[in-house]
Design brief:
The complex is a heterodimer of chains A (about 375) and B (about 375).
Chain A: E1 5-16, E2 23-34, E3 38-42, H1 49-56, E4 64-74, E5 80-82, H2 88-97, E6 99-102, H3 106-109, H4 116-127, H5 133-146, H6 163-174, E7 181-185, H7 193-210, E8 213-218, H8 221-227, E9 230-235, E10 238-244, H9 245-250, H10 255-261, E11 312-313, E12 321-322, H11 325-328, H12 344-351, H13 358-361
Chain B: E1 16-26, E2 47-58, E3 62-67, H1 74-81, E4 89-94, E5 97-98, H2 106-112, E6 113-116, H3 130-140, H4 147-160, H5 167-170, H6 179-191, E7 197-201, H7 209-226, E8 229-234, H8 237-243, E9 246-251, E10 254-260, H9 261-266, H10 271-279, H11 318-322, E11 328-331, E12 334-336, H12 347-353, H13 366-371
Parallel strand pairs in B: 3-8, 3-9, 6-7, 7-8
Antiparallel strand pairs in B: 1-2, 1-4, 4-5, 9-10, 10-12, 11-12
Helix pairs in contact in B: 3-4, 3-6, 6-7
Classes of the chains: A alpha/beta (about 375), B alpha/beta (about 375).
Chain lengths: ~375, ~375
């Protein structure tokens, strides 16, 4: 995979409201999205993941305000544009053609009184006015075909389509102008698991075909581990960990990631009690001091209640970042947060779809559980 | 006063049993409550086949999970069991005795069977505090002797759902509580009347990921400590595997497979269960996903003849269109409504075709099964095992 950056978010801050009463929904978020990459953004409701996407695309509506940071969009010709500085005329050209957005609720995102054709060709008409009506129609047929919907649906209205088909139409719309970056905010959350899987598989094929990059936002970390190349985890408006997907799953470095991973019951192996995370996410209006996660953290110590840990590299790896004093201080790192990462060869083997030894892969990284005796010996 | 200790009940008789429950909702207008159907002249009355011929037994100290997609009829099953909806056909047995169809003695029934709804943001009244919500069941059922007794009982029921100290929660309003705390209040409200059956309809799907486990573990605790019979309705088969003793998989209004939770998820016998498992998020999946039977559920108004999954099924045969498959044994306590399991279909064919769905985990070893308390002492007589 080429590591050419397409979208670089650095130090982005976004608030709701102004003055002392402002709620800091996103604080100092930094992300890089590379060409052809699926970057997962995981977090619970209220963690700021949608606000981050909206701020980065300048779609944040009042009372949301962007209070700092930079969002650089790299063009195919080597040009760089700061999205936060760009004026609306430029943004209008960039939207759909460079960056597009797929929202969670396709029922609300589609206009109920317009046909699918009208909505699919709208962006085409606005961005490529030289296209004739016929050409736009042909392109709409082609787009529906991409997502596996027959062209006679062009004259349907949204209510005549199933939830999965509506979401596919949204994806087709987002791809209408072959953007480089597609931001997907919980695109499959409202769907049944089989439909969700179908759409994810289609998305993977489309990504391979067109090479766009996806920022995939979801609360479902277990899903993200399967589909994303790298993952960023958000908690209470801050990024707490960034890592390649497999490394994050096998060897989490932040206690919140560890807790989140142990919140998903596994589909295999003997059943063992798992605990999730005690407490509940903080109120953004009254954030705890120091590390925002410390009241729920089993490893918290004095420093965590005072200083906010920076999101910085763990050890020598540049692609592994964590915002935790355990990783950056002189404290010994608990075994649960110091698991050995899978070797690169194993990762490569996994990506290429061949079968590494199963016994290895079925061993969970979570230190809180007993080692699993797998059934491969049966 | 703490939770009364309940003697370990007899698990041989189901606390609540449903026999061939069926619920059809009329598509065209019907007069509410009378069941009288006002069909359009010249047209046969059409119905939505929400639930067809569903039988299940809820036993003390057991969690029974109903797993299915939206529209599979799983919530209708819960509503039928709570008697919020009258069945079109079929019977309910409470403690082995038939429940009369009239609503006359509904309060008695509600005292034994209680329900927890999906959305604790909607199921609690935003202008009433926790005390009010928890005082209602005691008042409605006449369970408190005095004001002081009521206060004691409310405090005790809050402690049963691990909201302690009770004083810290009594006068909070729903908006002052987190989602997990709200759902605990809803569960406490259901527990107030000392029910023997708790029907939980997607109790964690509206909650944040990190606090779901807390509520699931609370349900497990209530099962173990208070010997409640719990129905857990969910679309998340992984959480059903975690919590439940028995899993029923529903598809288009029918139960397609049921059995011990681990056995159903490790050795699914029905092609639909296999599809569901292959589509579920699974971080340790090694092989690329192959969905065998992708597509959408059939119309509930005009379901296909025979097996309702046959239009999507990769193994569909002639007989699947002709007759509804009965429940064939697929292991100890494990049944599947699939013609592939019919004795005359020959097991060899099935083990080749359907035994190992793509991307499914290796079969759990016998040791795993033995270590699993809910799985009894099954030696896997499951399908697709080498004989």
């Amino acid at each position: 995979m080429s590591r050419q950056p397409l979208l670089e978010i650095s130090g982005l801050c976004a608030d709701y409201g102004q003055g002392p009463a402002a709620v800091h929904a996103v604080t100092d978020a930094s992300l890089v999205l590379h060409r052809g990459e699926v970057l997962g953004l995981a977090g619970e409701s209220g963690s700021g993941k949608s606000t981050l996407a909206m701020a980065a695309t300048r779609l944040l509506r009042p009372p949301g305000v962007i209070t700092g940071g930079e969002v650089r969009l790299f063009g195919a010709d080597g040009s760089v544009l700061d999205m936060l500085e760009a004026d609306y005329a430029i943004l209008r050209v960039l939207r759909w053609s460079q960056i597009s957005l797929v929202l969670q609720s396709a029922m609300n995102a589609l206009n109920p009184v317009l046909t699918i054709r009208a909505q699919l060709t709208d962006a085409l008409a606005a961005h490529e006015p030289h296209l004739s009506r016929k050409q736009r129609h042909a392109r709409a047929v082609e787009l529906l075909d991409l997502v596996g919907i027959s062209s006679d649906r062009l004259t349907s209205h949204p209510h005549e389509l199933s939830g999965g088909m509506r979401q596919r139409v949204m994806i087709a719309m987002a791809l209408a102008l072959r953007p480089q970056v597609v931001i997907m905010d919980e695109p499959t959350t409202a769907l049944d698991v089989v439909t969700q899987r179908e759409i994810l598989e289609e998305l993977k094929d489309l990504r391979d075909q067109f090479g766009f990059a996806i920022l995939f936002i979801t609360h479902d970390l277990s899903l993200l581990i399967e589909i994303a190349d790298s993952i960023a985890v958000m908690y209470a408006g801050r990024l707490v960990e960034r890592a390649p997907a497999n490394a994050l799953f096998r060897a989490p470095r932040h206690p919140y990631t560890l807790g989140l991973l142990s919140s998903f019951p596994p589909l295999h192996g003997p059943r063992a009690p798992i605990s999730g995370i005690p407490g509940s996410p903080p109120d953004l209006r009254a954030l705890p001091s120091g590390c925002v996660f410390h009241p729920r953290c089993q490893f918290a110590f004095d420093r965590c209640t005072v200083d906010t840990p920076p999101l910085s590299a763990v050890g020598a790896r540049t692609d592994r970042l964590a915002a935790c004093w355990l990783q950056h201080g002189d404290k010994p790192v608990p075994a649960e947060l110091a698991a050995t990462e899978p070797a690169e060869t194993e990762l490569a083997a996994n990506v290429s779809g061949s079968h590494p030894p199963e016994a290895d892969l079925y061993t969970p990284a979570l230190g809180t559980e007993e080692p699993v005796q797998q059934g491969s010996t049966a | 006063m703490t939770a009364p200790t309940v003697a370990v009940p007899d698990t041989t008789v189901a606390v609540l049993e449903a026999r061939s429950l069926t619920k059809h909702f009329p598509v065209h207008g019907s007069v509410q409550g009378t069941g009288r159907r006002v069909a359009r002249i010249g047209r046969p009355a059409r119905v939505v086949h929400a639930v067809d011929d569903v039988s299940l037994a809820l036993r003390a100290s057991q969690v029974t999970a109903v797993v299915g997609e939206s529209g599979s009829g799983k919530s209708t099953v819960a509503r039928l069991l709570a008697r919020l909806t009258t069945p079109t056909a079929g019977d309910l047995l409470l403690g082995g005795r038939p429940v009369p169809r009239t609503q006359r003695r509904h309060l008695d029934y509600a005292k034994t069977v209680q329900m927890v709804l999906q959305d604790p943001f909607a199921s609690l009244n935003p202008i009433r505090d926790v005390y009010y919500h928890l005082s209602r069941p005691f008042k409605v059922h006449g369970l408190a002797r005095s004001a002081a007794d009521l206060d004691d009982k409310i405090a005790a029921v809050l402690e049963r759902v691990a909201l302690a100290p009770a004083d810290a929660y009594l006068h909070k309003y729903p908006h002052e509580l987190s989602g997990g705390q709200r759902q605990r209040v809803a569960i406490a409200r259901a527990l107030a009347v000392q029910p023997r059956v708790l029907l939980a309809d997607e109790p964690v799907s509206m909650l944040d990921v990190s606090i779901r486990l807390g509520v699931l573990n609370l349900l497990a605790d209530l099962r173990d400590r208070e010997h409640l019979a719990i129905l857990y309705i969910t679309h998340d088969i992984a959480s059903a595997r975690y919590l439940a003793d028995t899993i029923l998989v529903m598809y288009a209004g029918r139960v397609v497979e049921s059995g011990p939770a681990v056995q159903v998820t490790d050795s699914p016998a029905h092609p639909y269960t296999q599809l569901l498992l292959s589509a579920a998020p699974d971080p340790v999946r090694v092989t690329p996903v192959t969905l065998r039977g992708a597509g959408a559920p059939p119309s509930a108004v005009a379901p296909p003849s025979g097996c309702r999954f046959r239009m999507r099924c990769p193994h569909a045969m002639a007989i699947c269109a002709e007759r509804v498959p009965p429940a064939f044994p697929a292991g100890t306590g494990h049944v599947s409504a699939c013609w592939l399991l019919a004795p005359d279909q020959g097991k060899s064919q099935h083990s080749q075709q359907a035994g190992h769905p793509a991307g499914s985990p290796p079969k759990a070893s016998a040791a795993d099964q033995a270590a699993e308390p809910g799985a009894l002492d099954d030696s896997i007589g499951g399908l697709g095992e080498e004989k």
